[in-house]
Design a protein that fits this description.
alpha/beta, Rossmann fold, UDP-N-acetylmuramoyl-L-alanine:D-glutamate ligase, eleven-stranded mixed sheet, seven-stranded parallel sheet, binds ligand NPW, binds adenosine-5'-diphosphate, binds potassium ion, lyase
Length: 491
């Protein structure tokens, strides 16, 4: 998994990598600029009239100057603005400045008339991870002007003004796209910053995970390439039993749809056998959504140990008898998945938390998490609370949202990269619950079940949204689950 190192560590990363690989910092800047231009030329409408690039005094500005040259070489009309006397800029900025072709129009910012032509693009290379104080004066004026412009706005590495690891303070560039190098800076993953970042793109510039691992940050970014090695392999002689027997408990009157979604998702994730236990006097009154599902009448005395995995909570309601909840925890000693009202009931009965089998997977969204541990002033504090909760209780916490955060009982925190906004639809969390339970039932470790569940779920959302777009519903995510295995090359 890709480590997410701090802005401060980036400087050392450069030095470490540069000395280990025998390349110069200028070479690394050239790679970054090339990666940006490769993204730009394949993503941005080529019919733009003008590219405006704004370059600050440090290496983020240096990237901007290198990008100006590379775009001009690809026949774009480029107008570069610099903010500080070139003599006072970083060494790599100066080196790139001296390589600028004549065809790039260059203007000092305070001599600019402030006009931005229609159908143009703004590239922000004012500050990167080296920002160390709030933006003022000429820099603030510039960002304010750019934020008012209607042109498409792209940030190099990080929107200027956004600190790499903290919550934003003061003026920040509002990008439509952020093209970040090598790994996402931590602050690019915070919900508070959505309106500054726009769409996030991570471009590899060839620094190895081993080089980054040396920093031991304990925070990681989960990508497609991490997933295949987490999967179990099955063979031609595998039988239904190998794929696991899963039970989904929840679904009070009027809310049985939730367990149906979880159970259907578990089947599509390859579970061998899936049972539903609705919280109804007579569970046989409901009809499972698909005929492959089976009903199970649970009471506090049934033996649950025939199941390989259990998930509790979707649609359960708050009227559940706590003695029954306790009986589930007493009758099944393997890690379980707890979602929705299973979590809300824990928040209302905190003593139950100590009875949950270790390494169980809890999947709260932000509100459910708040009910469990109280309010957080921002995502940084929330991350800290997630870490404390997971360590103190020996549980895996899947904090759902954009860039779902998985916190392991040893405190490691992993941000998911898959998924999109179209997944914010009723029942998509129930789908995730069923997927994680399915992997658990197939014999995956709880850690691998949580990571595979989260990644495949996000990817299924991406695939389904290609045809359903804003109209996507949770069942579409379920139908796309099989394609996620194909996409990732998993047999
Ligand atoms: N590592 C990598 O993977 C790669 C990194 N690369 C790139 O390097 C970027 C980091 O560059 P960086 O370290 O030079 O910092 P950067 O953000 O340009 O700013 C520092 C300058 O700004 C100044 N300054 C700060 N705050 C200020 C304020 N509020 N108001 C005014 N001035 C302020 C500060 O001045 P000082 O504090 O000395 O007064 C200094 O001059 C990184 O984001 C990426 O784009 C790629 O090229 C290659 C691969
Ligand atoms: N903007 C987003 N980007 C990526 N994933 C998202 C986004 N919004 C929601 N999701 C995912 O959709 C699911 C929603 O779950 P949840 O809030 O429990 O919904 P519900 O209760 O309706 O099932 C979570 O897995 C979450 O990570
Ligand atoms: K920037």
């Amino acid at each position: 998994m890709l480590p997410i190192i701090s802005g401060e560590q980036v400087k050392h990363l450069d030095q470490q990598y540069i000395s280990a690989e025998g390349i110069s910092s200028l070479d690394l800047m050239e790679r970054a600029a090339n990666a940006f231009v490769a993204w730009f030329t394949t993503t941005i409408n080529p019919n733009i009239k003008q590219v405006y690039i704004f370059a600050g005094p440090g290496n983020n500005g240096g990237d901007g100057v290198a990008i100006a040259r590379l775009l001009q070489e690809r026949y774009y009309n480029v107008h570069l603005f610099y903010l500080q006397e070139v003599a006072d800029c970083s060494a790599d900025f100066k080196a790139n400045y001296s390589r600028l072709p004549d065809k790039v129009l260059v203007t000092k910012f305070n001599e600019w008339n402030g006009i931005i032509a229609e159908h143009s693009v703004i590239i922000d290379g004012v500050f990167g991870v080296g920002i160390n104080r709030p933006i003022e004066g000429v820099f603030q004026r510039l960002i304010q002007i750019l934020n008012k412009a209607t042109a498409l706005k792209i940030a190099i590495d990080i929107p200027s003004g956004l600190p790499a690891d903290q919550i934003a303070f003061g003026t920040v560039f509002r990008a439509d796209h952020t093209v970040s190098f090598q790994f996402p800076k931590l602050s690019l993953l915070f919900p508070e910053h959505a309106s500054f970042i726009g769409e996030l793109h991570i471009m590899d510039i060839g620094i190895s995970e081993e080089t980054m691992d040396a920093f031991q940050v304990g925070r990681f970014y989960l990508r497609a390439k991490d997933i295949p090695s987490l999967h179990r392999s099955f063979h031609r002689f595998s039988h239904k039993g190998d794929y696991g027997k899963v039970l989904i408990i929840g679904g009070a009157k009027g809310k049985t749809g939730a367990i149906n979604l979880s159970a259907h998702a578990a089947l599509r994730t390859d579970s061998g056998l899936v049972h539903l236990a609705p919280y109804l006097e007579d569970p046989y009154l409901i009809q499972p959504i698909i005929s492959e599902l089976m009903l199970f009448q649970d009471d506090s005395k049934q033996n649950l140990n025939n199941f390989d995995a259990i998930a509790i909570g979707p649609g359960w309601g708050m009227g559940v008898d706590i003695a029954y909840y306790q009986s589930i925890l007493a009758r099944f000693q393997k890690p379980i998945v707890i979602d929705a009202d299973g979590l809300n009931l824990l928040a209302a009965n905190p003593d139950l938390i100590h009875k949950i089998p270790k390494n169980s997977v809890l999947t709260p969204h932000l509100k459910e998490f708040e009910r469990l541990v109280g309010k957080s002033k921002d995502h940084l504090e929330r991350m800290e609370k997630a870490k404390n909760f997971a360590i103190a209780n020996g549980l895996i916490l899947v904090l759902k949202g954009a860039h779902t955060l998985v916190t392991l009982p040893d405190g490691r925190q992993i941000f998911n990269s898959s998924g999109n906004q179209y997944m914010a639809t009723a029942g998509s969390g129930d789908v995730l619950t069923g997927m994680i339970a399915s992997f658990l039932g197939q014999g995956y470790s709880p850690e691998h079940a949580a990571l595979c569940g989260v990644y495949h779920h996000g990817l299924a959302g991406e695939l389904a949204s290609k045809s359903k777009w804003r109209g996507m519903i949770a069942s579409d995510i379920i139908e796309a689950i099989p394609r996620t295995f194909l996409e990732l090359g998993i047999k």
